[in-house]
Amino acid sequence: MMLDKLVFSVTNALGAGDIQFSWQNRRGGYLACAGSNQSVSIYNRSGEAVETVKLNGAHICTGLAWDSEGDILSVMVDKSPQLILWDANVERVNHLDSGLRDPLSFITWAKTGPMLAIGTTKGNLIIYNHRTTKRLSVLGKHSRKISCGAWSRENLIALGSEDRTLSISGPEGETQRVLSLRNDPSNICFSEMKGDERLSGENTVSVLVGRKMLLLYNLHNPDNPIELVFQQKYGSVVKYEWFGDGYILLGFSGGYFVVISTHLKEIGHELFQIKNHRDVLSDIALSEQLGMVGSCGDNIVKCHEMRNLQEAPTVISIGVGNDDILEGEEVDELTNKRKVGRAGRSRREEIKVGQMSWSSDGQLLAVVAGSQNSSSLLVYLSSLPSVHGTCNSDGGRLALLTNIREVTIFGPTKDIISESHTIDVEPSFLAVSSLHLAAGMNNRAWFYLLAEEIKDFSVENNQQLITSTSIGTQEYMGNVQSLKLGGKYASALLHSGKIQLHVVPQTVVKDESREMRIFPSHSTSSTIITCHCITPQSLIYGTDNGTIFYFSLDDWSEADDYQHGVGLKEIYTDPVGVYLAFIDDKNEGYIYNPVVSETTKICDFPLTASGIMWENWFPDKNIFAVFEGEKVITYIYLYNTVEGTIVEKIGETQIQNGHLPLLLFNGELTSRTQNGNVARMLLSTHDVKETDNLGHLETQAILQENLKKYLSLKKLEEASDVCLALDSQESWNELAEAALKCLNVDMAITVYRQMGNVGMVWALESFQGTEDKCLLAGHVSVCLRNFSKAQEWFLQSSDPLAALEMRRDLLQWEQALQLARKLAPEQVPYISREYAQQLEIMGCYSEALLCYEQSNLDINAGSMNSESNIKTEEDKNHFLLCIGGIARCSIRCGDIRKGVSLASEPNASTQLRCDCAEILEGLKQYPDAAVLYETGEYYDKAASLYIKLKNWKKVGDMLPSISSSKIHIQYAKAKEAEKQYKDAALAYENAKDYESVIRVSLDYLSDPDTAIRIVKMTNSTEGAKMVARFFQKLNDYGSAIQFLVMSGKLDEAYKMAKTHDRMELYAQFLEGNKAIVGGHSPSVEDFRNVAIHFDNQKSSLLAGKYYFKAKDYMKAFKNLLRVARSNSESEGEALALATEVVAESKDEQLATQLIDFLLGEPDGIPKDPKYVFQLYMARKQYSEAAKTAVIIANEEQNAGNYRHAHDVLFSMFRELRNNGLRVPSEMVEGLTLLHSYALVRLHVKRGDHLKAARMLLRVARSISKFPAHVVPILTSTVIECHRAGLRSSAFKNAAVLVKSDYRSQIDPKYQKKIEGLVRKPSFMRQNRGDGDGVDVGAENAGDASEPLSPCPFCSFQLPETELLCLQCKALIPFCIATGRHIVADDFTVCPHCEFPGIYSELIMLLKYEEVCPMCGENLSASDVSLIENFAEYHAKIKEQ
């Protein structure tokens, strides 16, 4: 309810004193009011004075009454027997003489006729019929003044008089009943009392008696009137009104507002009671059209809804002072002042509200308010009819009637300032476009220009108050049902079922014939147009027979029509004018696409739908909403989907009661509220929530909800952003599926690529870019596994065979055959064969046989050689597969002869023969099966069947081709039974039944060699036992002990060894069988027994050895040390074992004793250092081992055992490096010299004398470390330097050789040459060219400069063989192939020993000999790779 707008007020025009007023019945267009100024003023709904009726003399108006139709206003004047009648239709005043001289006291019009009842001050009654102008006077109806009365719908009249009687008379004035009352009557009404039995008509007369009691007089029960008396605190009854189903609303002077029921069971109970006013209640009013009841008193008006009286009322606060209307803050201030008290205000300034009444349509509420000095009539806007117009262009506009003559135009969003236009009429219909506004009623419309730039306006409450520019009016051929604007034209749908199309006033068209047109154009046509809409390009209208017509405004001709078949109620076009939504007479909704002339039914369309709105935001132009009651249902129209053209329901949004949706823009719904305002809300389907400042779980939930909304709206890009935030496989799958359903293959590929689903990406890329929509939809349907839909699309496409291929891929052969017979008959044989193969797998052999026979190209010949129709390789394969299927199915169906015959054909495949043989074997047809197995070269299976048939000859013939052990065993057993032991042994061996081979070889063939071979090969426990027993019988106890040990019979073997003095042999066998056959291992006790035996025999070495095996380290050490002290030949072995004992025992006491012994403390004789080295190595004391190794190497080197010294240092070097320990520099230097000397032989062998000379020079510089071969090494140095052209180096080393210490040791064959080299060095002479030589100093002569190469660590250039960098002072590793220092850009390592080398040199060396020059392991060029990152190796070098 509105009540917030004052339409107009009448203040000074009526004079001082009380004001009377009355609304025109039915129409409610006029308000008649009178005051103390001897006149009656009549105003229209806009507050304009229509008529002022002057009263003669000084008379004032005492009563106003309108007839039931609102045509005649009767005015009663005090002290006058005449009535004034004003005709509203012609606006003319007439006077009616009552015919009596009595002043008139009461007038009332009948409810259903033109009869007027007039009462006089003397109790007389005049009944006047305005239609016939007849008067009927009834004298003496009452004895005193008639003060009140009322008509019933049956034209009975009840009158109340000051004589305290109530009379009920007929339409001719005849008295029917008279009821005496206790006090003066007032406020008489006819109504229907609520009862158990419904009686038609107004059966009850209600009357106030003395304003304290309400009398209910039932005409059907006149003897039992009901008297209702109310609480004293309520005060007197001011007024009452009947409403609803027998309810009465009463207003009391004490400010109380009460509702009672007239049902006999409820009489006496108050259904509702409230104190609406603090001081006094002066009037109540009721509007059934509006559903409101109200009361007034003090300075306020309160209005309640009839359906829910408990709700808070709507309140109007009114202030009147000095003829000013106070509203808003002034009213609040006035109220506050009254709360403080009345001391500050005079009595005359208090404001009172005296009367109130609604117009007949409930839209206007008139209130009389005033003080002691003045009164005013205030007319408020209580409700407005829902008059509106919308347009879809430019984002949409809404024109809404917001006051009697005010139209407000709202934009699509609240950000756009609304425009309020004052118009010339109270409209019953509106229309709006981007340029024009139209308002009208009946058969006339007024048009206004909506300029793009308006200069004459003001802004109030975010509204532009604009003075509208009228551009003309248009009269139509009948009353207008609805009006639409579009571009230059307006379309008016008339109540007659026709459309009048015309140009908007002041719009120029080139052709006058296009200014106006009537539809349907044929005057004789019986078609009734029921709905219409218009765009700047077309007029669209629908008819009662279900036809939709498109009329082109540009071509001025019919453009299209569509026959729906069911009458149409409403049509709605989208903003672009492409799609059309309509509702038919069955209340079903459809979308019509004129481009393809196709309709799509709206699913779940509500039967009571009120209308449809299209989304005005262009990107979402295919979204629309249907509103029904308190909910709005959102749909989306999808033209290109995998399901075809569909309408999909998105969701529902609840709206408030009384809201009327009118405009939709980007999900924002603009509605008209019940009080005539505009409310905006976001549809729940578009309400995407933010996730700022939320927890993880809440964020995930909101993102999931947002994703669903974006997907339902088909906003895939926005959905993709949400999926990135969710980062879940499930959300990506939902997006991908949605993209596929919309045939958005590009988006689907992007999503699947994001998911990493390569298979789907490849599948989609295979048909990406397909222009044929049907073909594309078919492929997408396959991806979505909707194969039935895919077939429909494929059959509609340019490639219908794709449907056939799909069915074949799905192994759906029946559907494939149906398609093939229509689309590709040549494929029927192949599909039938594939179908037959599936039937055969399923076990449907008879059906499969039939399909195989039907699919064969030339099956009637019945032979594998029948290939007359075979032309291609494909046909040949098909033919062979068919024959094979026929053969198999024939056997299964009982035709064994046919099947075997086909499988036995020369061209039959081995697989076919095997298949048929397996079937025959299952049918226990062993002979045929065996033959087919044999011909198919399945010898194991054939032999198995021949064994069942006892055909050993066949089995023997096939034995070389049989791999089955089971068959060999069966055959061997048969041969053993026949005493053919050699054949049996061979068969057992082929079957890998080695125990049986051993048994036969020993028991029957006396062939222990074979048995021993088998036992050693298989480690068979039982076989070893059998061999042991065999040798025991032959008294070969050594062999028997060996095989007893192998078989795990250690106790028996021990006893036999001890008995026959074979303990050492037993111990060897025991030691050699670390894992005895059968999973047993020699135990500690086994070795202890052996050790004890040898200890008793005083064999200390063996006792120590086996005590060691038995983990008895102390006894083992004592026995071994005893042997070492004996200086026997076994000393070395004993010390080696003692070293192992100490290392394994980890006993420091034993270690100390052994070290003391090795160092010679007990006897003063030190032992070989190698034992100390072995001890340190065994105990992992690598530092001490390294020192010892250097000592050993030096001794070996001094002794001339260079290879051994090299190996010792190399092994120790690797051990230290593997354990992450630093390698001593002495070891590095020693290994370098020894390896350089070792490389000389390789270089000389390859003829590379320069490299050999360089290595020999390195050795010669440390010749003191090679004392055993000083002369040979220097001799080799001189020779290789001479060969390499290093004359100076050769001379220097030769000079050393000819010294007295070494001269006698020079090999005679080199002595003269060396001496000659020293006497006459060739580098000391320089040929001058004249044959004479000139001596030059040694400082000017010498070797050729050694090439330089960069240091791998700092890149400093230094000689190739120099291993110490002069700049970074680093010791550079040497190359294992050349002895030079390594270089970073040509670097490699041996994969076995990980020693570095120069890659190119090592590759060249390996061409001659595929052995690592350092570790001696086999090494090929392919095993060596170039290492580009030297830094890692450098780091390792630094760690060392």
- Percent of sequence in beta strands: 25-35%
Number of continuous helical runs:
42
Span between N and C termini? 97 Å
The proportion of residues forming helix, as a percent range, comes to: 25-40%
Mean pLDDT: 83
Biggest sheet features: 6 strands, mixed
Order of strands across the main sheet = 35-36-37-38-43-42
* Low-confidence parts: 320-348, 453-458, 858-867, 1074-1079, 1324-1341
Rg over C-alpha atoms, rounded to the nearest angstrom: 62 Å
- The shape, in one word, is elongated
Structural class: alpha+beta
Question: In total, how many beta strands?
Answer: 69
Give a description of the structure:
Helix content is 35%, strand content 26%. The chain is built from 42 helices and 69 strands. The strands form 19 sheets. Strands 35-36-37-38-43-42 form a six-stranded mixed beta sheet, with no helix packed on it. A hairpin with a 5-residue loop joins strand 10 and strand 11 (115-120). Helix 35 packs antiparallel against helix 36 (1249-1260), helix 37 (1270-1284) runs antiparallel to helix 38 and helix 38 (1287-1297) crosses helix 40 (1308-1319). The longest helix has 22 residues, at 1225-1246. Residues 320-348, 453-458, 858-867, 1074-1079 and 1324-1341 have low confidence and may be disordered.
Summary keywords:
1440 residues, alpha+beta, six-stranded mixed sheet, four-stranded antiparallel sheet, 69 strands
Short description:
The protein is an alpha+beta fold and 1440 residues long. The protein is built from 42 helices and 69 strands.
Describe the protein's topology:
Blueprint: E1 5-10, E2 20-23, E3 30-34, E4 39-44, E5 49-54, E6 61-66, E7 72-77, E8 82-87, E9 92-97, E10 104-109, E11 115-120, E12 125-129, E13 134-138, E14 146-151, E15 157-161, E16 165-169, E17 175-180, E18 185-191, E19 204-209, E20 213-218, E21 226-229, E22 237-243, E23 247-252, E24 256-261, E25 270-275, E26 283-287, E27 292-297, E28 300-305, E29 314-317, E30 319-321, E31 324-326, H1 329-340, E32 352-358, E33 364-370, E34 375-381, E35 388-391, E36 397-403, E37 406-410, E38 418-422, E39 429-432, E40 436-441, E41 444-449, E42 457-460, E43 463-466, E44 469-475, E45 480-486, E46 489-494, E47 499-503, E48 516-519, E49 529-534, E50 538-543, E51 547-552, E52 557-563, E53 568-573, E54 580-584, E55 589-593, E56 598-601, E57 611-614, E58 623-628, E59 631-638, E60 646-654, E61 660-665, E62 668-672, E63 678-682, H2 696-712, H3 716-726, H4 729-741, H5 745-755, H6 758-767, H7 773-783, H8 787-796, H9 801-809, H10 813-823, H11 828-842, H12 845-855, H13 873-892, H14 896-903, H15 910-922, H16 926-935, H17 939-948, ...
Parallel strand pairs: 38-43
Antiparallel strand pairs: 1-34, 2-3, 3-4, 4-5, 6-7, 7-8, 8-9, 10-11, 11-12, 12-13, 14-15, 15-16, 16-17, 18-19, 19-20, 20-21, 22-23, 23-24, 24-25, 26-27, 27-28, 28-29, 30-31, 32-33, 33-34, 35-36, 36-37, 37-38, 39-40, 40-41, 41-44, 42-43, 45-46, 46-47, 47-48, 49-50, 50-51, 51-52, 53-54, 54-55, ...
Helix pairs in contact: 2-3, 3-4, 4-5, 5-6, 6-7, 7-8, 8-9, 9-10, 10-11, 11-12, 11-13, 12-13, 13-14, 13-15, 14-15, 15-16, 16-17, 17-18, 19-20, 20-21, 21-22, 21-23, 22-23, 23-24, 24-25, 24-26, 25-26, 26-27, 27-28, 28-29, 28-30, 29-30, 30-31, 30-32, 32-33, 33-34, 34-35, 35-36, 36-37, 37-38, ...
